[in-house]
Design goal:
Blueprint: E1 18-21, H1 40-47, E2 53-59, H2 63-78, E3 81-87, H3 89-98, E4 105-108, E5 128-141, H4 148-153, E6 167-168, H5 176-191, H6 195-202, H7 210-218, E7 224-228, H8 229-234, E8 238-241, E9 248-255, H9 262-273, H10 275-283, E10 287-297, E11 313-316
Parallel strand pairs: 2-3, 2-4, 6-7, 10-11
Antiparallel strand pairs: 1-3, 4-9, 5-7, 5-8, 5-9, 5-10
Helix pairs in contact: 2-9, 5-6
Amino acid sequence: MSTRSKPAHSSRWASPRRLAVSSTVVSLTLAGTLAAPFTGSATSAASAKHSGTVDVLYAGSFLDLMEQQIGPAFHKASGYTVSGFSAGSSALASEIAGGTQVGDVFISASSSVNQSLEGASNGGWVSSYDEFGTSPLVLGYNRSSRFAEALRTTPWYDVVDRPGFLLGRTDPATDPKGVLAVDALSGVALSYDVPALGALATSTSNIFPETTLVGELQAGQLDAGFFYGVEAAAAHIKTVALTGTSLEAEYTVAVLNRAPHEAAAKAFVKFLLGANGRRILKENGVDPISPAKVVKHSAASTAVASSTRPTTTSTRS
């Protein structure tokens, strides 16, 4: 394999991408006389469509899925256009709390991240959220890597510590997946007596922004990296199971308090938790939780309400 360079450590977290996700609007020509009145069903269908934008701040592992499938499908169903901003869940929460990112909906890959946005001391951005799906942590590898065959036939922990192997992960300080990757390396290092994995867990030379990790792997800059099943499926990345672990993303969605486009935000959550949303999730590496579990902040004076909220509810203090 050709010589590969690594990005400088000083730029580990690059600026995430602002994505405008839209679908082509198709004009339909109705057969028959122009003078004929519209039918009731046609009028109803037209009134169901909306216009405008919903700003969704979402975990980087949803990057391809949101841009290629969820956003266009929601636009087709509702008329709203998704404007998406993607980064590590923890980093996004910090930006929301700090006022540097303003959005309508927040999708996190870890339920615990929402706690940093709950309560008056944290800005009161989240009063409740829905736990809607899980996706396993896996090891994705480059098919052209000289280690590809070994990864397919040998336990991953006996391959990633070999000389010359380039393994990527995200920063645990900004991304829950980075935390899980460190847990996987550290846990297996102890369970299977592989000290080299412990060294990989503490190394900072293998950290990449969540929104660029897929591209680094596909470009041949890495032999393998830690991904969630959902992003590996969307990017058509070959994966192997992380033997010795059972770690996964826990996806949540919340309508942010003081959302500029509240109606569009509620419509988006309704779509995501509905039949079409669950189908898209299931087809792309997310195991939907049905019905979604509503978690409310106990000190909240008001909760984000929606007629589509399921009855499964828990309260945290």
